[in-house]
Amino acid sequence: MKKIMLLIAVSVIVPVFAGQAPANARDAIQLDQFNKTLTEIAKKTIPRVVNISARKIMKNGGHNGQEHPFGKKFPFDIPHKSEAMGSGVIVDKKGYIVTNNHVIKDTSSITITLSDSRSFECEVVGTDPATDIAVIRIKGNVPDDLPVIEMADSDKIQVGEVAIAIGNPFGFTQTVTMGIISATGREGVGLADYEYFIQTDAAINPGNSGGALVNSDGKLIGINTAIFSRSGGYMGIGFAIPANMVKNVVKELMTSGKVVRGWLGVYIQDVNEDLAANFGYDGDKGVLIADIMEDSPAEKSDVKIGDIIIGVDGKKVDNVYELRRVIASSKPGSTVNLKLVRKGETKTVKFTIGEMPVKTAGKIDETTSPSEDSIGLVVHEIDERIAYQFRIKDTSGVVAVKVKPGSFAAAAGIIKGDVIKEIEKSPVADIGDYRRLLKEYKEKETLLFLVKRGGVNKFVVVKKTD
């Protein structure tokens, strides 16, 4: 009933703030109930949210690798201490507190302060940069009266529901703001590897990170983690990690100090209309397998390069974010049914989930060359010099050593250092193959390329039209 009362009461707030009395006694009662509900939520939740002061060891004069305001790098590298402020939420009576990984990352000491001004030193229990979640714990004796937040089922929240944010923006402790749920399931924001954010217009500012986003029952629906802002301050768009994701990550961090995720061992990309047409698929959603990793679960399975995954265990999969999230939440060793399209035919493949290893990343250097072909590329065969320059292990294919800005190749997303392995599903072993295939398909308006970048295969469609 509280949620209904809140939504009804919103309609009478405007005339009151405009200096007008409520239309009748019933409106006055509803407004009074609305106010009482908000104050009850604040009183209940504030003690469960803590202020976090994290002392960090910084380099580069405290700018931590950032650029000088005038565009120059700081030339010195002098370690010194810097204070970072944030928020946290008490999730267990034994002194466990959840916050954002970026709040406590690279810290030498962490202090939390409760709403009654008591302070405690904390230690890091575990971190999960992939979701930007961290768990810390009070050192030594934990007070018996430590209040714990209750978590809601975040899968049940709806757009338009009231949302209340509690945290310590700009160091102003125990600040409460209110808004609504603006959107759910936000992906591709670029803040973490695994995203399914709740979006809210409740005011969130620097220092709110790690704080609570609660519903009209005072239950946790999310951990505030970031804002969209061009100025650094509140602009009406904030993001919170949903409580259900927090529950799963926190449980693993508290028990083992790390998060174990499921793994396929494939390189994937979203399906678009052009790729679908080239793979005999009449849909426009799904996830294309561009390559299979060596010694991975996929290599031992029945999946193949060019398969388009459209479902897992009966659940539809539309994009890379959904597939990664579903597989990551699967237990290593368990078996799932992958629904996929192969050469136009739909089939189901049983797949045994592996355990995700620690990922690594490489870097590609740049080079130049004087000539360009019809799609705007300069290519070179793989010799010892090119292999070293671009850190390439392949012995066949050609390397894009220059991409003309604004060209067909550039528009397709091909970059310097890409190894071209196929054109229209025909292998490219050397420059001879490359030139022959370009000539053979010179009248074709779109060409399907298979390129390898940083050891990863990727399909791209080159459109030869303006």
Chart the SSEs and their pairings.
Layout: H1 2-9, H2 13-17, H3 25-45, E1 49-58, E2 80-92, E3 96-100, H4 101-104, E4 107-113, E5 119-128, E6 133-138, E7 162-167, E8 175-186, E9 197-200, E10 212-214, E11 220-227, E12 238-242, H5 243-256, E13 262-263, E14 266-270, H6 273-278, E15 287-292, E16 308-312, E17 315-316, H7 320-328, E18 335-342, E19 345-352, E20 354-355, E21 377-381, H8 384-390, E22 398-403, H9 408-412, E23 419-423, E24 426-427, H10 431-440, E25 446-453, E26 456-463
Antiparallel strand pairs: 1-2, 1-4, 2-3, 3-6, 4-5, 5-6, 7-8, 7-10, 8-9, 9-12, 10-11, 11-12, 13-20, 14-15, 15-16, 16-17, 16-18, 18-19, 21-22, 22-23, 23-24, 23-25, 25-26
Helix pairs in contact: 1-3
Question: How would you characterize the overall build of this protein?
Answer:
- This protein is of the alpha+beta class.
- It has helices at 2-9, 13-17, 25-45, 101-104, 243-256, 273-278, 320-328, 384-390, 408-412, 431-440, and strands spanning 49-58, 80-92, 96-100, 107-113, 119-128, 133-138, 162-167, 175-186, 197-200, 212-214, 220-227, 238-242, 262-263, 266-270, 287-292, 308-312, 315-316, 335-342, 345-352, 354-355, 377-381, 398-403, 419-423, 426-427, 446-453, 456-463.
- The strands form five sheets. The protein has a six-stranded antiparallel barrel with strand order 1-2-3-6-5-4.
- α1 (2-9) crosses α3 (25-45).
